[in-house]
From TrEMBL, chains A, B:
Record Pfam families: HAD (PF12710)
Official protein name in the record: Nonspecific acid phosphatase
Source organism per UniProt: Methylocella silvestris (strain DSM 15510 / CIP 108128 / LMG 27833 / NCIMB 13906 / BL2)
InterPro entries in the cross-refs: HAD-like_SerB (IPR050582), HAD-like_sf (IPR036412), HAD_sf (IPR023214)
Region (Disordered): 20-40
Length: 339, 339
């Protein structure tokens, strides 16, 4: 089947992806400009550039037409900070503390109890599901439009405990450059997050130039119903889908309907997405962001319940996945570092 | 929140959307060329053109920025022929007849029994669900890639009983012009089908210039598993989601994450999608394709189990939905009519 070519042109907000001191290349992959100025020179940066050249040069044996150029990015820990806790967890815990007096029964019920006690080990034992259970219960009865406003308001006000900046400032500049670089080379990019799709959509367009339909995430049961004479969508308490681990390939197929050729993750929750992406024949890219920089960001892997990285790291060499070592490979971490 | 502008440029295959004798306008909504040459002059055509002008002219009080320009299209009966049975039903019944000797237990079990007996009344009593149950059972164990090939092969060979053409030739030229016209005016277009997303994706790119991620549809449970040492996605028998009736707004929110401002349907299965789209404040377009042309296509509404149209038609005037009367409004029906 011949598939058409789509060229996506991003507007003025694409400039937001650049640091003041660096531009991220133009639409030509053979540009003399450095498309990844926040990456240190070395094998990791070169592997990313080689991959893009290999799949986009028409004379390459690994050439992929534009409709096959799908790249998927995990969010927490891959595109922005996830320590000491996921932003969405901070969002949920703040609301939980607020409404707890109305729900005394939650004090002895999991996962509420673990959340109240900040027992992350218990809370995250089953990955992203418990966080979605919390968010489902806390925002049941809102419409998606209302939820979007509440999330956006919280994100505009909340401050990260260590960096004392808004979460949306704590995005990784090197990864924003990768997203812009891939898009400039004809890729469609999607965020594939274990977090709630509606939470991430509340900031993804402004922060990553990713419109809502390019965000795939966990979901809460939503129904279209008439209430008070007005038909609308309403959120229910129950979890519909957990977009994590083996759920990520499922979410990708359901949403995109095509197997990606490049995947970026940082934890065991991304293992199956990496396997799915690089498991097919052809030139494929799998990359794991490794948090090795306690001074500028955080250093953690298998010891951390947040962003637990163990099995995916063990599988990296046999699968040919690249490790982006934050301390070694990233010249700057955050956009404001370059200013 | 300021949202970025995205311009989508469609490639050479956009030409496929035009008849040989007519071009569908260019990127300027004020073009002197007729963007809808297959539509007869009249109130319906004018209402579509007025809507597009109203939401795209910067000096219009109803101006909508590009990121808000989302248009959704039902498929069966709105973009292509659905009589005497949905193409996907034809696809399933052919496979069912083939494998029935291996599944004698299906002869007395619904919905298989109704399908075997071509009892569409029973089969479609609960809308699209039974058809998905059939397709789920028939293709359990295949990967999405395998299913895509099987569907594409079937579509390349199957012939419509009355028109003796492939189903993909039996698309409505006037609606293809609407899709192209909306895209040329900065709209993102999505197909929102009660049919299986993976079935419709097998032809949507070639037929409608709609890549897989712009197709939202019913879904079968799919899991990422290792079988024979190979990890991949596999289809299971059970229905995951029915994208019909109140399911359509749910599918739209889950997939697009934004409320559309224009919706096109033809049956009661599109009622809630129309309500959701036009229920918000601002300039909105709801359009119902009415099958009134027994000579050139079919004439049916509330008497037909396929494409049953009753409640949506009753709600049209109070909701301001436009009726596209096929006999009156469409100069040609199929692309080959214009040749």
């Amino acid at each position: 089947m011949s598939r058409h070519r789509t060229t996506r042109q991003r507007g003025s907000s694409a400039n937001m992806l650049m640091t003041a001191s660096a531009s991220a290349g133009d639409d030509h992959s053979d540009s003399a400009q450095d498309p990844l100025p926040s990456w240190n020179e070395g094998a990791t940066k070169q592997a990313i550039i080689d991959f893009v050249a290999d799949v986009t040069r028409e004379d390459s044996p690994h050439f992929e037409p534009r409709d096959r150029r799908i790249a998927v990015f995990d969010n927490d820990g891959t595109l922005w900070v996830e320590q000491p806790m996921y932003a969405q967890m901070d969002f949920a815990l703040e609301e939980l503390r607020k409404v707890l007096p109305l729900h005394p029964e939650w004090r002895d019920r999991q996962p509420f109890k673990a959340a109240i006690e900040a027992d992350f080990e218990t809370l995250l034992k089953e990955g992203a599901r418990n966080l979605q259970i919390l968010v489902g219960a806390l925002y049941a009865g809102t419409t998606p439009d209302q939820f979007d406003r509440l999330a956006a308001e919280w994100l505009a006000a909340a401050v990260h405990p260590r960096f004392e900046r808004r979460y949306t400032e704590l995005v990784y500049q090197p990864m924003r450059e990768v997203m812009a670089y891939f898009r400039a080379n004809g890729f469609k990019t999607f965020i594939v997050t274990g977090g709630g799709a509606e939470f991430v959509r509340a900031f993804a367009e402004q922060t990553y130039d990713a419109p809502p339909e390019e965000v795939i995430g966990s979901g809460i049961i939503t129904r279209f119903e008439s209430r008070d004479g007005r038909a609308d969508l309403y959120r229910f308490a129950d979890v519909d889908f957990v977009d994590e681990g083996p759920g990520k390939p499922v979410g990708i197929e359901s949403h995109i309907g095509r197997r990606p050729i490049a995947a970026f993750g940082n934890s065991d929750g991304d293992l199956e997405m990496l396997e799915y992406t690089t498991g097919a024949s052809g030139r494929r890219l799998g990359l794991i962001v490794r948090h090795t920089d306690a001074a500028r960001e955080y250093a953690y892997d298998k010891g951390s319940p947040v962003g637990h990285l163990e099995r995916a790291l063990e599988g990296a060499s046999s699968n040919g996945w690249i490790i982006a070592d934050m301390r070694r490979d990233w010249r700057v971490i955050f956009p404001f570092d370059g200013a």
